[in-house]
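Lay summary

Proteins are chains of building blocks that fold into shapes. Our project writes down both the chain and a compact code for its shape. Here are two examples, one after the other.
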Amino acid sequence: MIKMYQRSKFDLLKDKCRKEGIDLVQTMMQVLSLDKSAIYKRLDGSKILNLDEVIKIQDHFQLPEYFFTSHTSTVIPFRFGMIQHQPETIVGYLTPIHDQLMQLQQLDDVSITYASSEIPLFNYFQFSELTYFKFYIWARTIWEMPHYRNRKFDVSTVLTSEESRIKEVVGQLQQAYASIPSTEYWSINILDNTINQIRFYAETDNFTNARMSKVLIEQLEQLVEKMEETARVGCKSGHEDVQFHLYHNEITHTNNTILVERDGHPIQTYCSFDNPNFLSTDYSDFCIYTRRWFDKLRKGSTYLSVAGSRQRVKYFRELRRRLAEGKTVLGYAS
């Protein structure tokens, strides 16, 4: 049983090496300092790996720590950095996301599939006030950063508490996401949370400038315009060779779920827990399950990009209607 299990793990590693053009046997000989015969005995399971060999193999091939110890199971290992500590700054929250996106940007044939209950994070980054407003809410309510306690919102509220690097990081994140092909699933309620947040902070007098709510609503309107155009042409702004597919998810309730794939193979899954914080895993079975879930989600969704012109017009018209309602409540009706 153990021999078959070890052999099955090396079969997975063989597939990984084949796709990356790596000679597994020669590499294993170097990593373990063994001759070819000894390596073949480990590959076919006739010689069981010891702990030192497992560690060396996992370190060299950058395998997850559970690669040789997990079996098909309902127990899925996730990473969640918030258990160790909450971010002390917004830049501290953005830095791991930045590092991961920079790594993905260097890989060939990478794509992202993103189901979201509100506008995906990276789209906000096109508008400064809207971006910093979302940061302000999360810093005050989710991460409970001391600087934001009992403070009203203004762009300077965020900038004065952050390293000067925040603008640079936001810009790099926006460009990195724009350079990666993506498929996104939006519901018709995608604006509701942000509109309600703007209303709440306006009604509780939490803007230093009373006209800030108007600025934020107008930036949401501009964002809707930009996203409709992106869906219409089927590529990301400034990256004509980067495909963008948008679906209207009409029936399935989703949290924020992101699947990263390379060469058509699912490699990482991210799921929001207390938004905007994400759990992540590269556990193969779960990533494959997530791909199948997205396939089912697509069957019940309406395609809005390029050829889906009628459905696209209808969808974005409804978003604008909801924005108009929000403006009316705030006293900014056209």
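And here is the second example, written the same way.
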Amino acid sequence: MRKFATLIFFILSVQFAVAAPVVNFKISKTICLLTFLETASGAPHSSLTLRKYITGHLQETDSADFNNLLRKYASLNLDQSYILAEYPPQRQKPRSSVNLIKIAAVQSDDTKDFLRRIAGILPNEQWLLFKEVLEGAEYYYDLLIFKEHEAALGKQLTELKLYNDKTKSAFYKLKTFYGSTWPDNLPFTVAIYPIPGNTGNTTATPHNNSLVMAVLTEEKDHDSRIGVAMHEICHVLYEEQPLDFQWKLDSAFQVSQSVSKLYAYNYIDEALATACGNGWMYEYLTGKTDKGTWYNDDYIDGYAHALYPLVKTYIENDKRIDRRFITSAIELFEKQFPDAAYEYNNLFNKMSVYTDATNNEQYRNIMNTVNRHYRVTSSQSSYPITDPQSLSLADNSDGTQLFIIHTNKQENLVALKRIFPELDNVKAEEESVISFMDKMNRPVVVVNVKDASRIEAAFKKMAETKKISRSLSSVAIQ
């Protein structure tokens, strides 16, 4: 009898495990607080819609205290990163302490649980300040957003949970397509946070098995929102491809003779996630293709649409990405974007940036300006420009080189002329955007302005001109 009872329990346990959803949606108050602080602080890639809502609903009497809270938040050093050097250089992404913090926030039950989970990630001094900031932020978050919109957020959660079966079957097809390693008993947890209204700019980010996703409190198109969730899961599947498989795909890019291979490689992760999540998943749920824009970036959206027929064929035939797929992807990118090698929108996607910043706050302000005008997915930075490490990086690093000069103009240009003889006739006193391809065939852009207040004007000028010149070109800034 005992053996029989034990066997029945085992069978039921297995059946329960198999039936468990692959994607679990939840509301995390801690994620709500973190995104609230990030957005109010003007963090790159945060929701402009939510930021506008916060500033529009903050009472003037609360502004001083709230801004003081944001200054404390800005002083926290949450982002310590490292690289897994054994992976292909083009696939290496910094693994950051911010990811660990976001994973803890998604998985935690409340703020107290969250703070316990991140003990040891931050020094105690920073941990205590973080605790103080979160406790202060909760008052304003409840006042401005949560009390009024908590019920609507709960309704959105209920709607998303109805997709458990479909997300599960879709996940296994996408896992096959990516050829990824993922444990069957490790579900994805998607923590949602609210943006009031039924239209606007939303964001989502993946952190291994923990995802952060905005929802509009009044939205009705849940098929599209599920597509966003699967888009982020696809980023994780791309990252979790086995090491030897990553090298095989890397080789397929490297052996190509196309001038577009680097740019096709740069965008492949985002374009595949868009084609799979916003393209294939939406069609899987609705039976029709979304005819609109899938991604708010011309390169990613155009590349994803170009890839979609190929992606759909592979997924529906249970085929894994292979060398032939990569060759076709490069050809499709080159056909879609024949001028990519000269367009700022593409060249600033991944680059090396050098500035005249004298401290981290000034550097962040400069980079915020850059991010307002261009989608920068990866950059290595160094300041000041004349520092030996900066000059060494400029002399040896690959890809786009962007220099932003707003102080010590003569000194900076003298130093840069030793690396780039193309600059010999450039005059330090003339405000301009200078561009050319150097002897290593690297795109080089030098922004030369009288002071930091003119950096914005320089980037507006680049938005007008759109492209660099192959030989040296100097465009005056008005």
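What can we say about the second shape? Residues 344-476 form a domain with the Rossmann fold fold (CATH 3.40.50).
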